[in-house]
C-alpha cells in the first residue's frame, strides 16, 4: 500500500532564500584554450630559466667554493615543480596552475643566485 501524498496546500511553505543559481560566466576570464597556450609558453620560460640556473650554478662552482649549496638545489627543484604544474595546467587548465608554473620558473634563478 502506498501512502497518499498531501495536497500542495498542506505542504509547508519554504522559509529560506531561493536555491543557488548559476552565475553568468566571467567575460574577461581566459578560455581553456588560451590557458593551455600560456602553459605551453611557460615550458619555454622553464627551459630558459633552466639554462640561467645552470649558468649561475657553474659560475658559483668556478668562482666560489666549488660546491653547490642548498639554494641551487632548491632552484632546480623549483624548475621540476614548475614543469609538473605546467603539465597539470595542460591537462586541467586552471589559472592558478599556470600562475604557479610561472612563479616557480622565475624563482629558480633567484634561488640559484642566492647560493
3D structure, described in words:
It is built from three helices and no strands. It is an all-alpha fold. The radius of gyration is 26 Å and the shape is elongated. Helix 1 runs antiparallel to helix 2 and helix 2 packs antiparallel against helix 3. The longest helix is centred in the middle third of the chain and has 32 residues. The mean pLDDT is 86.
> What string gives the helices and strands in order?
HHH
Helix content: 55-70%
Structural class: mainly alpha
Major pleated sheet: none
Overall mean pLDDT: 86
Keywords:
3 helices; elongated; single chain; mainly alpha; 115 residues
Short characterization:
The protein is 64% helix and 0% strand.
Topology:
Blueprint: H1 32-63, H2 70-91, H3 95-114
Amino acid at each position: 500500500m502506498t501512502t497518499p501524498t498531501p495536497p500542495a496546500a498542506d505542504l509547508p511553505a519554504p522559509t529560506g532564500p531561493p536555491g543557488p543559481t548559476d552565475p553568468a560566466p566571467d567575460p574577461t576570464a581566459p578560455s581553456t584554450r588560451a590557458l593551455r597556450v600560456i602553459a605551453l609558453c611557460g615550458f619555454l620560460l622553464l627551459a630558459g630559466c633552466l639554462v640561467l640556473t645552470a649558468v649561475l650554478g657553474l659560475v658559483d662552482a668556478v668562482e666560489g667554493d666549488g660546491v653547490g649549496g642548498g639554494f641551487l638545489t632548491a632552484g632546480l627543484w623549483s624548475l621540476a615543480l614548475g614543469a609538473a604544474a605546467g603539465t597539470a595546467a595542460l591537462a586541467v587548465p586552471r589559472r592558478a596552475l599556470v600562475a604557479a608554473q610561472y612563479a616557480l620558473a622565475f624563482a629558480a634563478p633567484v634561488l640559484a643566485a642566492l647560493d
